[in-house]
Amino acid sequence: MNLKTFILKRSIQVVISFYVILSLLFFLLRLSPGDPYSKYIDSDMTQQEIELIKKQMGLDKHIFYQYLIYIRNLIKMDFGYSFHYGTHVWDVIKNKILNTILLFTTSVIVSALVGIFLGRIAAWRRNTSLDAGLTIASLVTHTIFLPWLGLLLIWIFGYKFELFPLSGIYTPEIWLDPECGFLRKALDVMHHMALPFLSLFLLHFGGYLLLMRNSMLGTLKEDYILTARAKGLREKDIINRHALPNAALPVVTSVGLSLAFSINGGALTETVFSWPGIGRELVMAVSHNDYPLAQAAFLLIAIVVLLANVLVDILYAFLDPRIRYE
Amino acid sequence: MKKLVSIYVLLIPLFFTSVCYGEGVIRIGLLQEPKTLNIWNATDTWSSKVLSLLYPTLFLRDPDTLELVPFLAEEHPKLNFEEKSYTLRLRDLKWSDGTPFTAEDLLFTGETILKYKIPNFYNRWDLVKKIEAVDKRTVKFYLNELSPLFESRTLFSPVVQKKEWEPVIKGLEGSGEPLKVLMNHKVKSPVAIGPFVVSEVKEGAYIFLKKNPHFPKDWDNRYRGPHVNGIIFKIFGTTDTAILELKKGGLDYIWWNLPEGYLEDLSKEKGLKIYSSEKNALYFLGFNLKKAPMNDLAFRKAVAYLIDKEFIVKRLLQEKGIVMDSPISSFNTKWYCTNISLYGKGMSREERIRRAYETLKEAGYSWKVYPVGEENTQRKGKGLMDPRGEEIKRITILVPPADYDPVRAMAGTMIQEWLQEMGIDVTVKPMPFNAMMDQVKSRKEFDMVIMGYGNLTLDPDYLRRFFESEAGGHKGDNITGYSSQSFDQLARASSGCMDPEERRKIVCQMQKILSEELPIIPLYNPHVIEVVREDKFTGWVKTLGGVGNLWSFFNLKPAKNK
Q1: Are B437 and A171 an interchain contact pair (Cβ–Cβ within 8 Å)?
Q2: What is the interface pTM, i.e. ipTM, of the complex?
Q3: Topology (CATH) of B282-526
Q4: What is the DSSP secondary structure assignment for residue B272, as one 8-state letter?
Q5: What is the pTM of this model?
Q6: Can you give the pLDDT at residue A287?
Q7: What CATH number is given for A93-319 in this structure?
Q8: Which residues of B touch A170 (CB under 8 A)?
Q9: Which of A41, A84, A274 shows the shortest C-beta gap to B35?
């Protein structure tokens, strides 16, 4: 099977998976308790008036008919209006997704780079106190309860030492000040980003470190490493040129998928740090029974993750010549 | 990497450069982002709070007496019994764009609400048959039937500018879903009639309101404001971070009710002031009257004897609240009546158990293990059996989860303990709020539930909504399924009675019936606990519902010793 056939086959799988996801999503959301129209009902409204509201929200029709409309609108790329905000769902998503990408994608990239770097060192210096320290530190930070870590960082660095803002993404006084230019505003966002970034970094780098360390340890036992040593190559070259590219393969998959998942943000991080991202929005959409917004957000995540899977598979072939699509 | 860190370190001094902007601007924390600035879609608390400063109502409640005070109106409406009409004179005011506020604006608002049956506003206007402009500043409301509810509902309606909304309404013509289009209309900067106007919105982060330059300073003799230059609403995800921000000085007021657990810590902070204010709320234990044994009055009375409301208020609310004996709060002296039946008030636990035991025994209930022995000795009862001798199956009390409302969740656990002492097999089931409401209001599949209404009107018409037979249908507010002809007659009479004295008598009778038939057991009414930075702004006006009210925003001034 050549690459083109592989991509075609995987694309068909993606389309089928996407269809299953969007259908499940539609029915699961409607099976969840509550309804989106109760908050619009006045106590003095007659049943006829309540029905009118349901009709206006498109909830008066049979669920399968609603499903057909949903599919038709999806084909037209029309995700409708958020029940909660009353604005088009893309307006809600586009305002939040950039904030999420800024924080979460940056943290995934940085924690992956640091994790790979330290994982490589830990593997090379295995069974030393450095290895033990890094491994223990990774296990602790990787398994820590995020809201607790977030609040602790806020309390220490935001409240006690007043080094960073406690929450949010902007300092209103700076953004409202006409004398503050782009640089000042950009720095303000970076300043606000420091604590949520640090908590995400602490949470994630350990995972990459452990993954890289284990992969590296496996690779270092391979015969070609022994051969390289026998040839008298420098240790640095053995690690960086021979072991690292092979050991990095599982990490590439992990980072690729983490990057894809990073667009759904994280409800806990965004809530603790009042970061206006898509994660908190998703949770709110589900709790408000805001079907259009929840559907659009979940579908966006689904499509990015599905595509990332395909891309990682293709990337694998380029990184590892042993892998062929057969 | 090293370079990046170095650049960041070099930039750090810039983060701490002082910002002068914001002098005289008060910073207020909100727990969630207001979902819209379109008043028709503002069904959430947070949008309502912000928009209340842009769209004040025709009348307000006096912060001390709670009597009606004209705001957009100039004086109290004149009633014409023959015509069934009210005539109202409007104040000479200007919108934030400088155009005059006229009768046409009020006319347009009323007609729009009535035509499109706009949810949350329609019930304020459905008493009105017709509305006409007598002159530029006088409006006449013709009612379907004279009702005292006109004053508590229609006069608390906000008014929108005709000039701003007329093109939107014209655009609805020919639309298959006009209400949907109206509610989804995007409003970036509403034309306001109140003391503030929207200046800038950063979605998910903050809203900045500045002073409305056209708002008159002399509209009230007591509160001649606003004296602040603007308001910044900051959005927080958690109470913890908002409190730290307040303690740090980055926030001047947290505009939501704080859990009692924060009080001790906050009371030690200098410059902070904690306000504990009454609110018109009702938290109660509701019975499903369609199911046994909840449909038996003796059983409900026994439960009422067993519940120690004073204990709940003392321990769970830390005395920041009041015991509710009637669905109307005791501070609402205009409507609260003392002719009601009380259960177990002032009794010890032993006396409560004995009274509950006697009530059940008289009604024919029996036990496998009796909770009260022959010589009045008490022990834990077991296996309560109904008058037919059948053991009562496990009863479930639905409560919201502790992270949503810790007091209700804990009250449920306490009630479970007290009922188990009597040998009633009962268990508490915390349930997500939406799921609980679905189960209780839509499907009516519950035994008992602890519910709450956090913001009731002072007018007691909600008794009709909660207990009238007609309101017992799907999604009706009568969740218990209570049905009483005599109560229904009184409820209808109450909403049409124009004589305040006569109406009070009717309302007292309604309360008496409810206390005797116990479709619900009113439990408590918690205070609103708020915290402000008094070292930054002074002049908070405490009234029913807390210090976050228009009066405060008129009266607040930057603190002199700041």
Answers
A1: no
A2: 0.86
A3: Dipeptide-binding Protein; domain 3 (3.10.105)
A4: E
A5: 0.88
A6: 82
A7: 1.10.3720.10
A8: 202, 205-206
A9: A84
